[in-house]
Amino acid sequence: MVSRGAPLMPKPLRAIVVEPTNLCNLRCTTCPVNNGMRRARGTMSLELFGRIIEGLPSLKRLSLNNWGEPLLHPDIFRMVRLAKDKGTKTAIFCTNGVLLDDAHAEQLFESGLDILEFSLDGLPGVYESIRGVDYRHVKEAIERVLARREELGSSLGVGLVFTVCPDNEHHVHAFRKAWQARVDYVKMQPMVLLGERTAPYCAEFFGKHDGRLVVLWDGTVTICCADVEGEIVLGNAQQESLLDIWNGPVLARIRAGIAKGRLPSRCQRCVELDTVVGEKRYS
């Protein structure tokens, strides 16, 4: 919790989220991408991504997904390789798994990816009602990656991310039992909703990381992955370096406001599903 009035100094910027694309091949009931997202759709150029990475020589953790399916980006594995070649310690992305065929599986091992997460929101029946695709198809994709990892003796981390919503909350315990011994971790995260909150805290921004920014596909820089529409514009990576944005006047004003208990208006409308089976990230 951030104390009211306490100065908030920028930590080193060692973690970023880059949105390769906000296009997606699914229409999940828990996700806004194909259910109301208003901002323009597109994919980040490899040139812009390269400039972002070049400007962060001490980057510690890169998450190559935000809103959208990263496997829809034609250069997603080149992005991973570029980041790793520049010294990024941990590269990670999360996929719905539908597009992950044998060719993609080989590319992800060759790219140097450190962690692959699959977004999987339930067991058969409930999963299909949320995702609109066959659970068995994605289960086979996960098993394909795990088998290939074993064959190669690879250190790739494989995790599952379960977005908890009212429709699948009753599947949580059975889901853990089915998967937790087969993958490296199972992460439960409550669905993000729009509501009202008053707690003067930004866990993603100040609490859990060394310092983190989110870069949308068009270069727009915002505070948090929950800023679906990119309402909190800190700058644009096409015109400024992330370090200049991180240490710049816009974020200085936001930090000063949070220290006094004033959240940006978008953050005031952010609330997570009230559940005891997932770890809250924003409140």
Structure at a glance:
The chain is 30% helix and 17% strand. It has helices at 46-54, 76-85, 102-111, 126-131, 135-152, 172-179, 203-207, 242-246, 249-259, 265-268; strands at 15-18, 61-63, 90-95, 115-119, 157-164, 185-190, 192-194, 212-215, 220-222, 235-236, 270-272.
Question: How does this structure look, described?
Answer:
By secondary structure, this protein is an alpha/beta fold. Helix content is about 30%, strand content about 15%. It has helices at about 45-55, 75-85, 100-110, 125-130, 135-150, 170-180, 205, 240-245, 250-260, 265-270, and strands at about 15-20, 60-65, 90-95, 115-120, 155-165, 185-190, 190-195, 210-215, 220, 235, 270. Strand 5, helix 6 (about 170-180) and strand 6 form a beta-alpha-beta unit. The N and C termini lie close together (about 10 Å).
Contiguous runs where pLDDT drops below 50 for at least 5 residues? 196-201
State the helicity in percent bands: 25-40%
Instruction: Report the C-alpha radius of gyration, rounded.
Output: 19 Å
Mean pLDDT comes to: 85
Q: How does the overall form come out from the CA principal axes?
A: globular
Number of strand segments = 11
Q: Can you write the helix and strand succession as a string?
A: EHEHEHEHHEHEEHEEEHHHE
SSE class: alpha/beta
Largest sheet: 9 strands, mixed
Q: Main sheet: which strands, in order across?
A: 6-5-4-3-2-1-8-9-10
* Cα-to-Cα separation, first versus last residue: 9 Å
**Strand residues, percent:** 15-25%
- Separate helix tally: 10
